[in-house]
């Protein structure tokens, strides 16, 4: 290499050195990511040590929708990251799960925490499940909470696809009998690793039927069980008082528990 470099002009020599340096940085970053995953694999996540919280937005990736939840968690002293989805948030949900894995790696590496808690809103809850199942989240997540997530699909996506003659990839994947959901729901709906909880509202007209948002093996909270008069819509879930109470009762240091009744 020295003799080859000496034959180059000063400008080309600097360019080669810059390129080599960049490659070295990328290799080190990849190695650090692999080390994080290797060190955490197979190690039980401490359930009494709440770490940073990742909030995953729904279809379309509107991060501002999760600001109310972020405020609740930060008031509790938690470190919160609202995850920006790839592209416009309507692309392949499995690719979004891979991106979530990268974000989780970065947060764990920079914080030094043993785990993360993750809240997935709407389609973001499906992304979180894909991450846990296929992208290493099973050894990084302590608690998973999903809000109004079409875990078994939604008839609204089916209607939209029928009327429009098709819809973006994520929409197609949220059809009730999509190949992605059939694979995701085959066997154990709540794989071992994190503790699981879901919240849904009987007034949700986006995820229909609303029972699609519940998961076998999870603590499943219906907003109206805690507040019978609630008319919380799908879009109001992140700012709902029952949801805020569920965040506190499921993401704390104690066992996962349903919120106390109240509106």
UniProtKB/TrEMBL annotation:
Record-level GO BP terms: lipid catabolic process
Domain of life: Bacteria
Pfam family, one: Lipase_2
SUPFAM superfamilies, per database record: alpha/beta-Hydrolases
InterPro entries: AB_hydrolase_fold, Lipase_EstA/Esterase_EstB
One MF term in the entry's GO annotations: hydrolase activity
PANTHER family linked: SLL1969 PROTEIN
Protein name (Swiss-Prot/TrEMBL): Triacylglycerol esterase/lipase EstA, alpha/beta hydrolase fold
């Amino acid at each position: 290499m020295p003799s080859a470099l000496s034959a180059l002009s000063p400008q080309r020599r600097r360019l080669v050195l810059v390129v080599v340096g960049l490659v070295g940085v990328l290799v080190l970053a990849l190695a650090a990511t692999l080390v994080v995953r290797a060190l955490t694999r197979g190690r039980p996540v401490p359930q009494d040590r709440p770490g940073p919280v990742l909030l995953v937005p729904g279809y379309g990736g509107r991060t501002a929708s999760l600001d109310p939840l972020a405020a609740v968690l930060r008031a509790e002293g938690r470190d919160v990251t609202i995850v920006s989805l790839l592209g416009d948030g309507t692309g392949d949900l499995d690719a979004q799960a891979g991106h979530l894995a990268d974000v989780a790696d970065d947060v764990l590496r920079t914080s030094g925490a043993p785990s993360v808690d993750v809240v997935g809103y709407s389609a973001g809850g499906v992304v979180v499940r894909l991450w846990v199942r296929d992208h290493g989240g099973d050894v990084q997540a302590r608690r998973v909470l999903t809000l109004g997530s079409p875990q078994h699909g939604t008839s609204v996506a089916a209607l939209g696809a029928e009327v429009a003659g098709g819809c973006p990839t994520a929409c197609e994947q949220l059809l009730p009998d999509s190949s992605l959901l059939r694979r995701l729901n085959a066997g154990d709906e709540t794989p071992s690793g994190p503790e699981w909880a879901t919240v849904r509202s009987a007034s949700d007209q986006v995820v229909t039927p609303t029972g699609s948002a519940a998961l076998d093996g999870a603590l499943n909270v219906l907003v109206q069980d805690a507040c019978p008069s609630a008319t919380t819509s799908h879009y109001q879930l992140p700012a709902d008082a029952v949801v805020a109470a569920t965040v506190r009762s499921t993401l704390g240091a104690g066992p996962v528990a349903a919120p106390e009744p109240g509106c």
